[in-house]
Design a protein that fits this description.
Elements (H helix, E strand, L loop, with lengths): L1 E7 L8 H9 L9 E6 L2 E7 L13 E3 L2 E9 L2 H10 L9 H12 L9 E9 L4 E6 L8 E5 L2 E5 L17 H10 L13 E3 L4 E6 L4 E6 L14 H19 L6 E4 L4 H13 L8 E5 L9 H10 L3 E5 L3 H6 L1 H8 L7 H14 L4 E3 L4 H4 L7 H11 L4 H11 L34 H10 L2 H14 L4 E3 L5 H9 L13 H6 L6 H4 L11 H7 L1 H14 L7 H11 L6 H17 L6
Parallel strand pairs: 13-14, 13-16, 14-15, 16-17
Antiparallel strand pairs: 1-3, 1-9, 2-3, 4-5, 5-6, 6-7, 7-11, 8-9, 8-10, 11-12
Helix pairs in contact: 2-3, 4-22, 5-16, 9-22, 10-15, 19-20, 20-21, 20-22
């Protein structure tokens, strides 16, 4: 796991070493174990290394392999198997790193190398002989790849902050993306970013850049819609195969030459990871460490579920909590780590989890991200699910509706605010994109959630919060084999009688306490944000007052009165929008962001 940077200037020019070095060093937190640079004609690569596999200097980057040079961020979990296969094909290795395996795989299979990878990655391979860069991002975009191509200068980096060192850098606001964030709470749903002129290489895409001609070609190498649907598969057989795949994914994700811990929220997903780790490696249970966030307000606290799990699996548990003052005091620090505004206070809670991981020398953390998307874990899956039923088995719709209304989701409204912020558009001088949710059918919605919905945003803040503390976060539920299997299954294997994540619950019936197995109110890194906004309303009103005075071209004075009305009358469904406005304009101040005339 590392920080990567690269730049290509016009042919005949040379990259300025101070720019390359400062940009690369701005990513020091992503790789404090070593750094390096490579220069060739009009191309330069930089890398900051976080040593996870082969801790020796052999893993130094940019790494050399014949005429190839690589700057690489990620992990290939199947690197040992790939290494053996490549040796049989005549390749020789001088290190024990997965980085060298990536290089050999590209030498062997070229642009098709990704089809052999099981892992997470963002890398750029420079071929000196061809004067071209081959760049790639993993199937689901677990690792970031930002790039800028303007004034005939191409540059890429793990984080946008590294691009600030480019010649003539002047951050300009992308108004369309700003509107999507402020009005709809959307982030990372397109290749654009909040910075005008800065884009992301989409998940499952590769890029070929001709360094002589300054030409870019982007191709999609991974397609979810090509997954074949399972036929004649019983639920019992599917459950057994699901568990086998998940166990193997956890086995691969544990490969490391440093300590591995687990981020434990008390929900079904992270508890499953703890349980299966304990089952697969019982001899190491006393060495396994977990980090959990405990809310200071009881209604948001999930510590009791963590404690229930610890009774069954006596691993070492660390807990962290933070009150209103400490949380708000960290906002600037976390915004700077993310290079963007914060959607909610939950990001700060997770930031604290990874900070504690570092304090306990846990350099790798397993996380439950991705399970909700592949197992219909959100309440929003009900609508496409019902559409599917009406289309194929309409006589079952009444029973499914009763299952939802009778058991699970409706009572959550008392705990979690429902975001209704379209009215905010009246007070903001933005337009928004034509982004649409594809929930025409269940399969389309699954794909949407994985590539455009909530997951890209969750993966972004998981990466930034972990790497801010030089910790690698791994997500075994996003092993592509498990994802493809789950997406091949019929909807009824994931939802039945209102119960979501059906197949996961069935597979973990013997391993999890009933309090967790039968839990339907998972909140997800909950903070008392709603409670704080009610109890500390004067603080938030003052923040909005400062914003409308400082940014009169972007937000009207009427928004202050709107805020007072919302907070005075406890209109909690609008709280999330107010938080976003505060976070967004604070980010603009910290970034020194300019706007279009």
């Amino acid at each position: 796991m590392c920080g990567i940077f690269g730049i290509v200037v016009p042919e005949g020019e040379k990259p300025a070493a101070p720019i390359v070095e400062k940009a690369t060093d701005s990513l020091y937190h992503r790789g404090p174990d070593g750094g390096g640079y490579f220069y060739d004609k009009n191309v330069a690569l930089g890398n900051r290394r976080l040593a996870i596999l082969d801790l020796s200097d052999d893993g130094h980057m940019p790494m050399v392999y014949g005429s190839l040079r690589i700057t690489y961020n990620g992990e290939l979990y199947n690197y040992l198997e790939l290494r053996s296969e490549l040796i049989t094909r005549g390749h020789e290795f001088r290190t024990k790193t997965d980085t060298e395996v990536v290089l050999a795989a590209y030498k062997e299979w070229g642009k098709a190398c990704e089809q052999h990878f099981n892992g997470m990655w963002a890398f750029a391979i420079y071929d000196i002989e061809k004067a071209e860069l081959f760049c790639s991002r993993d199937r689901f975009g677990i690792k970031p790849f930002f790039y800028s191509f303007r004034e005939n200068v191409f540059a890429f980096a793990s984080e946008i902050k590294a691009l600030r060192f480019l010649p003539n850098w002047r951050p300009k606001l992308n108004h369309e993306m700003a509107g999507d964030f402020l009005i709809h709470g959307l982030q990372h749903h397109t290749s654009q970013t909040l910075y005008d002129g800065v884009n992301q290489l989409p998940a499952g895409h590769q890029m070929l850049f001709d360094c002589n001609e300054s030409k870019m070609i982007i191709n999609q190498y991974y397609h979810l819609d090509s997954i074949t649907k399972a036929k004649n598969l019983s639920f019992e057989s599917a459950t057994n195969k699901f568990k086998d795949l998940l166990e193997d994914a956890i086995h691969l994700h544990r490969r490391s030459d440093v300590k591995v811990g687990i981020a434990l929220s008390g929900g079904l997903d992270s508890s499953t990871i703890v349980a299966l780790n304990s089952k697969l490696y019982p001899e190491e249970i006393d060495q396994l460490e977990t980090i959990s966030y405990a809310s200071t307000i009881k209604v948001y606290d999930e510590s009791n579920y963590v404690d229930d799990l610890l009774k069954k699996y006596p691993v070492t548990s660390h807990k962290i909590s933070a009150g209103f003052g400490e949380t708000m005091g960290l906002m600037d620090e976390v915004i700077k780590a993310h290079d963007e505004p914060l959607l909610s206070a939950s990001l700060i809670a997770q930031y604290l989890v990874f900070r504690m991981a570092k304090e306990n020398n846990l350099k790798v953390m397993l996380d439950g991200q991705g399970a909700d998307e592949i197992l219909a874990g959100y309440g929003t899956y009900y609508k496409p699910f019902w559409k599917e039923i009406l289309k194929s088995k309409p006589w079952l719709i009444l029973g499914e509706l009763i299952g939802v209304l009778g058991k699970h989701e409706i009572n959550l409204k008392s705990k979690m605010s429902v975001d209704k912020t379209l009215e905010v558009q009246t007070y903001l001088n933005f337009s928004t994109s034509n982004h649409k949710v594809n929930n025409d059918n269940f399969s389309a919605y699954e794909q949407y959630m994985l590539l455009q919905g909530i997951l890209p945003y969750l993966l972004h803040f998981d990466d930034r919060n972990s790497m801010a503390h030089s910790v690698e976060s791994r997500v075994p539920f996003l092993d592509y084999r498990l994802v493809e299997f789950c997406l091949s299954l019929p909807p009824f294997f994931k939802i039945k009688h209102g119960v979501r994540k059906r197949i996961l619950r069935a597979s973990m019936r013997e391993e999890l306490p009933k309090s967790i197995l039968n839990r339907y109110d998972k909140m997800g890194f909950p903070t008392p944000q709603q409670h704080w906004m009610s109890e500390q309303s004067e603080y938030f009103v003052n923040k909005i007052s400062e914003i409308v005075n400082d940014f009169p071209k972007l937000i009207t004075q009427d928004y202050l009165e709107y805020t007072k009305d919302v907070l005075t009358n406890n209109k909690v469904e609008h709280y999330a929008g107010i938080w976003r406005v505060i976070s967004f304009f604070r980010w603009m101040e910290l970034e020194g962001m300019t706007v279009h005339d």
